[in-house]
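pasting input
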Amino acid sequence: MSSLPGIVAINTFREAVRDRVLYNLIFFALIMIGAAIIVGQISIGIERQVIVNLGLSAISIIGLIMAIFIGVGLVYKEIEKRTLYSLLSKPLPRWEFLTGKYVGLLITLTVNTFFMTLGLAAALFYVGRPFVRSDVSILVAIYFILLELALVTAFALFFSCFSSPMLSTLFTLGIYVAGVFAPDIRNLGDLTHNSAIQSGARAIYYVLPNFHNFNSIALAAHGDAIPLALLWQNTLYALLYVVLLLLASSAVFSRRNLK
Amino acid sequence: MSTAAIEIVGLTKDYPVGFWRKRMRRSLDSLNLQVEEGEIFGFLGPNGAGKTTTLKLLMRLIFPTAGTARILGRSIGDTRMHRDIGYLPEQPYFYDHLTARELLDYYTRFSGYPAAERRDRIARMLERVGLSSAADVQLRKFSKGMLQRVGIAQAIVHDPKVVFLDEPMSGLDPIGRREVRDIILDLKQQGRTVFFSTHILSDAEMLCDRVAVLHLGQLRGVGAPGEIVSIEVHGVEILFESREGRPLPLDLIQRATRTGQRYRIEVPEAELYPTLGQLRDCDARILSVSTVRPTLEDYFFRLVDRPKEAHAAVEVNVP
Ligand SMILES: Nc1ncnc2c1ncn2[C@@H]1O[C@H](COP(=O)(O)OP(=O)(O)O)[C@@H](O)[C@H]1O
Ligand SMILES: [Mg+2]
């Protein structure tokens, strides 16, 4: 990691660690311990399902909160505190700075998710269930959550290149919620039998990022296999979207006057 | 001299003002300036003159309404050129979570030095700016003066050819100021170009090969500090005291300022001999006669023709 964005990314990660961002893991651990104890006492054969469901949901929500709230401040904080002034006087193009900040948060989210995964495994172990092959789908579900976080972070970064953290948070949340319900919008349109509304709804469906496909928590909880095609599809989809968003962010940010 | 270190052509910046940001106010008005390699160049002007705006334009932190600039013959849009420049922002602020040593390590990574060389350079630089003992303290615990020192260190740690310093003496005590002056003189010794802004005229007068004076976004004069001063009418200062019991000419005493037994009077050059004659007639003891060179400060006050009260905004530092 001696590339310019790499240097920025490592500093961004170090900042997150020193600002005690990873302390949220304590919160996650408490949820898992509580769930494990309660489920262990009820014990009616659905321990695995409950623990996996709860664990993956917590991993997803905690990750989303971090991605949005840290994401919208990545650039804003550096402008507001004027730490960017001296940094940009180094041989560092703005787009590489932006990429570095993005990758830095991604590293933070990945490390955080890794520890939460360990926590989930420990909880499953505690309720006394041996690991089986279908547990791979839990890992795939977590991978999808990471892809989702990568996409959400890219949106947060993009919005923060031209609006305040407050507005960026609202925009990002809006896009996320709309993206989760994107297929419903399409289905709703199809129900109308009105071709204009149908194609309108389909247009919205295609423009919105499809966050729906990244959610395979239910599949994983039931121990169902996740189709391999979905793995490829989601990976490529997230990659393409992230690259486009980073390009757009760079284009906006490279022209921006720092106050 | 081959290419100029800094070449500014018609640089102009309008800032949007007002609630709707519709109206524009010109903060820098087609600035033309050329700084040669190896010069210490002082960029002078009272607060709000447009000095910081100019430096931010050169650093591409903001973009000009019109005009261009080149540094070391290369476009300011070329970030690779930044390898050869250093910049101290006004009232610098750095990452809270890093120590001074870590910050310098972070920044020098962009210059591509290997780890061992970074370590040596940084240690030397921390010594140079007097931060050795605070090198491993997180910057959140630093005072304003210490941040200023870190700022200077990060601006020169990578041996830049051209150094831009925005108010380098601000936030420093007299000792700190002298240290910064020494650093700037060292840089000149090493053949570097130093471009620094200040509203403290004595600093510029002491250091600069040439100065430019900016006021309300407009360039009001460029030249050697001496050249700029030489336009002024010179006066002569006479220091004298009376010998035992001999009265002094009343009209002179009235115009003179008295310190203990001594009188000091300033007269235009043309009045020197008549005045000396008067003093001889009453057998006064002449202690010294010297020409009064108007300081850059005087020049500056005259240039910035505002009512006297407003001069409070200009910090005058008597060395
Ligand atoms: N971001 C900004 N928005 C609007 N006006 C600004 C901005 N920055 C500076 N100005 C105005 O531009 C003028 C020059 O400011 P500046 O370059 O900071 O002066 P100096 O550094 O010489 O004190 C001032 O009138 C200031 O109010
Ligand atoms: Mg200024």
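fyi The radius of gyration of chain B is 24 Å.
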